Amino acid sequence: MDIGQRRVVVLGDVMLDEFVWGEVTRISPEAPVPVVDIRRESVHLGGAANVLANLIALGAQAKVIGVTGQDNSGERLRSAVLQESRLQSDDLIIIDKSRPSTVKTRIIAHSQLVVRADREMRTAINGETEQKIIGKLKDALKQADAFVVSDYDKGVVTPRILAEILPLAYEHMPVLIDPKLRNFDSYRPATLVTPNHHEALRMANLEEDSDAGLHQAAKIIRESLRCDAVLITRGDRGMMLLERDLNPIFVETAAREVYDVTGAGDTVIATLAASLAGGATMLEAAILANHAAGIVVGKVGTATAAAEEVLASFT
Ligand SMILES: Nc1ncnc2c1ncn2[C@@H]1O[C@H](COP(=O)(O)OP(=O)(O)OP(=O)(O)O)[C@@H](O)[C@H]1O
Ligand SMILES: [Mg+2]
User: Fold this and answer.
1) Which residue's CA is the nearest one to ligand 1's atom 22?
2) DSSP 8-state assignment for residue 141
3) 17, 145, 151, 266: which is the annotated catalytic residue?
């Protein structure tokens, strides 16, 4: 299996994760809240842009198609994405004046999250932006070995885009979907759908978060979407893979230490995509993804795992 030269196209909700680090020395006289003295700020790629960062850390060649607003955060996000990917041209992220860029700002003092503030608009993008995305996707998919949809329910992934693009992509390459409930009926055709356990139960309209309950949920999801496989991620309980009508396979987490679980789902879908693009079987891809996620949860901040780290984790 060779991940190196594989090309992966990602469509989804790109976000900026902003971190403000500081110290609390007093309580505000205005209200009983801490005053944080800012010491340092940093930004990370989030959402679909974090899937891109994970693909690149693994050595794959990747590009991301998404939307930002016409604002300062959008500029920072686009330039961070351009810096990350050699393949990315600066027109793949569309600027939509009618919406803000999605930004999650975390204020952290003494290693503790004090507050998170989100800026976002969740309504679906307009028809004009949809049309631009469809054009760019059709073009990008001509040279791709896998296609990922990273849906964070912020409006970029729409039923119309999915209906036009998924059949085209599925004919030529593995199609992987990190889903949300709103678009559930539109994720077809697909090779692999990767909900977390909460999302899977909601999609299947079930409640029991057990091995048997998730097996049932995966069966229902697979039958209603007619996808080849469903992989349910289960946080500290690892993951469950249901391929075709085979028995489910339960994979224990590979994490040794857990510091920060944000973005683990992005690492999972990125590793699955790079592995499938490189010719791995579904089970091999799931085991690699589980190892990559195990590494990422051991790092602080939205993090990525390099191919060498993933390999080393098997020893
Ligand atoms: N607390 C944890 N302990 C050990 N492993 C974990 C933990 N949380 C996540 N993982 C690993 O990361 C994988 C994906 O995590 P999770 O199921 O939380 O995805 P998610 O809910 O989609 O995450 P995200 O917040 O990125 O959307 C898991 O399958 C597991 O391998
Ligand atoms: Mg997720």
Assistant:
1) 265
2) G
3) 266
The conformation of residue 248, written as its DSSP 8-state character, comes to P
Kindly give the distance from the C-alpha atom of residue 103 to the centroid of ligand 2, in angstroms, as a whole number. 17
- Cβ atoms < 10 Å from Cβ of 235: 17
- Residue 29 in tokens: 């006289």
- Alpha-carbon gap, residue 269 to 55, rounded angstroms: 9
Place of tokens 């077809």: 188
According to the model, what pLDDT value does residue 132 have?
98
Q: Which two tokens stand for residue 200?
A: 């899977």
Q: What is the pTM of this model?
A: 0.96
Q: Which residue type does 237 have? A: R
Q: SS3 helix, strand, coil % of the chain, rounded to 5?
A: 40, 25, 35
Cβ of 253 less than 6 Å from ligand 1: yes
**Residue at token pair 């609390």:** 24
Rounded Cα distance between 263 and 155, Å, is 19
195 prior amide bond cis, ω within 30: no
Indicate if 266 belongs to the active site: yes
Reported as a single tens digit per residue, the pLDDT across 65-77 is: 999 999 999 999 9
Mean pLDDT, the chain, whole residue set: 96
Q: Is the alpha carbon torsion for 121, 168, 55, 284 positive or negative?
A: positive
**Residue 179 in tokens:** 């889903």
